[in-house]
Design brief:
Strand content: 25-35%
CATH class of the largest domain: Mainly Beta
Oligomer: single chain
Radius of gyration: 21 Å
CATH superfamily of the largest domain: Jelly Rolls
Domain Phosphomannose isomerase type I catalytic: 2-130
Enzyme class: isomerase
Shape: globular
Helix content: 10-25%
Distance between the termini: 22 Å
Number of helices: 10
CATH topology of the largest domain: Jelly Rolls
Number of domains: 3
InterPro entries: Man6P_Isoase-1, Mannose-6-P_Isomerase, Pmannose_isomerase-type1_CS, PMI_typeI_cat, RmlC-like_jellyroll, RmlC_Cupin_sf
GO molecular function, one term: mannose-6-phosphate isomerase activity
Order of helices and strands: EHEEHEEHEEHHHHHHEEEEHEEEEEEEE
Largest sheet: 9 strands, antiparallel
EC number: 5.3.1.8
């Protein structure tokens, strides 16, 4: 089975006005275009060219969801649950309608995810920085009452980061939040170069989009990660994160469970976010892929998905099929041929679904494609 997939971009407010159109070589619509989903998740199953949607083919059994993601503005600061937390939350909310605005859990699955940059630069906030490093950052900005109070709280005992995030998001620290944001803005435009300049400019940019939002100060506690094209970042369950700008391919477990902690007009449930948040600090490694030749793999420690990047230079690339597979074209001219004899040419920004009944496929043409499949 070889089927052509497409979908309509989702118009979230943080979406880019140009990135997806530029990728696909079309005129921008003038509206934000944030994500294109390739999968069978009931919230937005892919369209099948032959007729219908992918969930009608798979029965909703795909363990992963593949996306194109285009961030023109910062996404919400967010965290995703473990599978145990998701099941418990889904059960607790079983009496609520699936579209009830008080719902936190849209399904009973976890949502680890991997993003690989397609743009030359992709910026994100990924994980919590060690407290000692954040104190060094604060030493480089002008002091005021809010900065002093944050520094005092970071020097406390116990699970400091959980306590500080709860304080910032709890609704009683707005004066301190405003002070800290003011100091960050001043530091971001100073003339003297400093170790934290790039990070401070990024946080000041977030503050321009979300003035006065406590999430801006939460962002100040997080690792600022900048990816180059072809580099990736894996985000485990419980890891606080927010994408800031850029175009990428994202793959995740088939879930839409998101607990938000700022930079959004959507629902924020602070107690639930704190309950599932992993506050262990540390750098989140940049993944540069493994392998040589045409195929670059991005190993991840979860069984829900695996992702490979395929560079096509005119020579056919034969690939095995192990389970339901997708091929997403991201540049050039990509053709997918199944061993059964079916052949599809893919426009950039569209995908092919390869059923588990196929034993292998061959990609040909020139350009780039990503291969998504279940993990091991």
């Amino acid at each position: 089975m070889l089927l052509r997939l497409s979908n309509t971009p989702r118009d979230y407010a943080w979406g880019s006005d140009t990135l997806l159109a530029g990728l696909e070589g079309r005129t921008p619509t003038g509206a934000p275009e944030a994500e294109v989903w390739f999968g069978d998740h009931p919230a937005d199953p892919s369209d099948v060219a032959e007729d219908g949607t992918l969930d009608q083919v798979t029965g909703g059994s795909l363990p992963y969801l593949l996306k194109l993601l285009a961030a023109g503005r910062p996404l919400s600061i967010q965290v995703h649950p473990t599978i145990e937390q998701a099941r418990a939350g889904w059960e607790r909310e079983s009496g609520l309608a699936i579209d009830d605005p008080q719902r936190n859990y849209r399904d009973d699955n976890h949502k680890p995810e991997l993003l690989v940059a397609l743009s030359e630069r992709f910026e994100s906030l990924s994980g919590l920085r060690p407290v000692a490093e954040t104190l060094e950052l604060l030493d480089g900005i002008d002091d005021n009452a809010g900065v002093t109070r944050l520094r005092e709280r970071l020097r406390g005992d116990g699970d400091v980061l959980r306590e500080v995030i709860g304080w910032l998001l709890g609704g009683h620290a707005q004066r301190e939040v405003d002070d800290i944001i003011s100091a960050v803005k001043v530091a971001a435009v100073r003339q003297e170069p400093g170790e934290w300049d790039v990070t401070l400019r990024a946080i000041a940019g977030v503050a321009e989009t979300y003035p006065g939002d406590p999430g801006v100060v939460v962002a100040l506690l997080m690792n600022h990660v900048v990816l180059e094209r072809g580099e990736g970042v894996f985000l485990r369950a419980g890891l606080l994160h927010a994408y800031l700008s850029g175009l990428g391919v994202e793959i995740m477990a088939a879930s839409d469970n998101v607990l938000r902690g700022g930079l959004t007009p959507k629902r924020i449930d602070v107690p639930e976010l704190l309950a599932i948040l992993d506050t262990a600090p540390g750098a989140v490694p940049v993944l540069r892929g493994t392998g040589d030749g045409a195929v670059t793999s991005y190993p991840v420690p979860v069984p829900d998905f695996a992702l490979d990047r395929i560079e096509l230079t005119g020579q056919p690339v034969a690939l095995p099929v192990s389970g339901p597979t997708m091929v997403l074209a991201t540049s050039g001219a990509v053709t997918v041929a199944a061993l059964s004899g079916v052949r599809l040419s893919l426009a950039v920004g569209t995908a092919a679904f390869v059923g588990a009944d196929e034993e292998g496929i061959t990609l040909s043409g020139t350009g780039e494609a990503f291969l998504a499949r279940p993990g091991v």
